[in-house]
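Lab notebook, design round three. We kept the backbone fixed and only want residue identities now. Task for the bench partner: fill in a sequence for the structure below.
Input structure tokens:
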């Protein structure tokens, strides 16, 4: 299938943000490990969160998707799987990495695998740290990459962990840590990638009753024995998904209001709004909705997006329509995602007529006269959504394999249709 995107004029649209992918993954895992029942309300039902849910079910956790909620019967810290299980995590890095440490809470070995691309996404630093904490982690194929087989126990204690490739390595150990035999103390020798996701992890853990001490992003201690308690857990809206909606106002002009976002969220992709404001948009966060409005021209900016990785492509798309160049830094770890995102973004923007310069950790976009092109998202939802939005300003855009948005934002195309934008 192909979605064709035509140029539209200034917009006046209102959307509801989809629920947060990161919060839904974590609430599923905390609820599955908790004592008692958990009701996750307004969860994200998308390909990736279904993969986490199915993984937990195969570990023996009863779980039910109901309209607008998920009911989870917690296993009190020991997965009841009756034997070895293999979990297919597709291309969901969060599923594979977060379940890696939790798998030590099963009495039987757990094999975690995924699709072809997932087998190229690293897990080595996580495996190394887990071994120090008592786990047996064996690489079934290429050392440092899935598939991995997890057995042994989560003894706990102190370890160092390098989160500079992915914060998910750190989140993984933190989320399982309340069920270690001893307290877990993690020291991060290097600045973690995507550090804001560690705030999301801590937020969910605290919400489920864990005790966690920390010094910024370089030291964490989780108390053993402070089990998660089942609860009703409402999931807030997703700032990464909302970025595509806000970007429509930035590239087309006019205004877009998005409801369902928490104004004091710790999600790092909130920073995308600061970027739009610095470029010349008006951003207002009211009680009901966050609104982005553009009446004049956009100017280029320089911004560090290391903590907001999932909105780098949205920002690159907006930057291509500005009046001056934009330099985005903190992009090194985007090469480990669903695709080599910097490479694909640079190549597509160049084909559209923009100038793009790439270094190891930055992306500089120099706007030029743009024209639409055919985009192969390489099965990367964020590439499809970012270039669809840019297509609304440029016209003549064709997005191949549009169903890849199922990963995080299954209603993306319907949302644009619903507001008459497609
Ligand atoms: O923990 C999470 O929920 C996520 C962490 C980030 O990954 P990295 O830490 O690998 O950059 C982000 O890109 C991903 O979409 C979700
Ligand atoms: C990188 C992403 O997800 P994950 O790491 O879970 O595959 C994403 O959604 O952009």
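Proposed sequence:
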């Amino acid at each position: 299938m192909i979605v064709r995107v035509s140029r539209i004029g200034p917009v006046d649209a209102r959307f509801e943000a989809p629920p947060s992918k990161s919060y839904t993954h974590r609430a599923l895992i905390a609820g599955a490990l908790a004592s008692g029942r958990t009701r996750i309300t307004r969860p994200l039902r998308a390909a990736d969160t279904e993969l986490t849910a199915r993984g937990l079910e195969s570990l023996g956790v009863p779980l039910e998707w109901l309209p607008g909620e998920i009911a989870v019967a917690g296993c009190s810290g020991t997965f009841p799987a009756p034997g070895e299980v293999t979990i297919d995590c597709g291309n969901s890095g969060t599923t594979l990495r977060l379940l890696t440490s939790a798998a030590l809470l099963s009495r039987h070995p757990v094999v975690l695998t995924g699709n072809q691309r997932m087998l190229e996404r690293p897990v080595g630093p996580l495996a190394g740290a887990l071994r120090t904490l008592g786990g047996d982690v064996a690489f079934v194929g290429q050392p440092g990459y899935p598939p991995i087989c997890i057995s042994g126990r989560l003894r706990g204690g102190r370890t160092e962990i390098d989160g500079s490739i992915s914060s998910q390595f750190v989140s993984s150990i933190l989320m399982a840590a309340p069920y270690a035999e001893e307290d877990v103390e993690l020291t991060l020798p290097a600045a973690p990638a995507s550090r804001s996701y560690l705030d999301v992890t801590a937020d969910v853990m605290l919400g489920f009753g864990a005790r966690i001490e920390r010094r910024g992003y370089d030291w964490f201690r989780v108390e053993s024995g402070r089990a998660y308690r089942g609860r009703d857990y409402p999931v807030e809206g997703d700032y990464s998904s909302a970025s595509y909606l806000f970007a429509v106002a930035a590239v087309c002009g006019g205004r877009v209001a998005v409801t369902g976002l928490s104004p004091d969220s710790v999600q790092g992709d909130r920073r995308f709004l600061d970027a739009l404001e610095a470029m010349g948009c008006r951003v207002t966060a009211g009680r009901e909705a966050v609104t982005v409005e553009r009446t004049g021209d956009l100017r280029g900016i320089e911004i560090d997006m290391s903590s907001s990785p999932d909105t780098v492509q949205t920002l690159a798309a907006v930057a291509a329509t500005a009046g001056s160049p934009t330099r985005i830094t903190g992009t090194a770890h985007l090469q480990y995602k669903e695709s080599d995102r910097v490479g694909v973004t640079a190549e597509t923007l160049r084909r559209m007529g923009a100038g793009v310069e790439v270094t190891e950790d930055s992306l500089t976009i120099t706007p030029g006269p743009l024209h639409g092109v055919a985009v192969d998202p390489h099965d990367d939802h964020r590439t499809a959504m970012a270039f669809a939005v840019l297509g609304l300003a440029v016209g003549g855009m064709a997005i191949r394999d549009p169903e890849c948005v199922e990963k995080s934002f299954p209603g993306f195309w319907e949302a644009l249709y619903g507001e008459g934008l497609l």
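Keep this in mind before ordering anything: Residues 48, 91-94, 310, 337-338, 382, 408 surround phosphoenolpyruvate (ligand 2) (CB under 6 Å).
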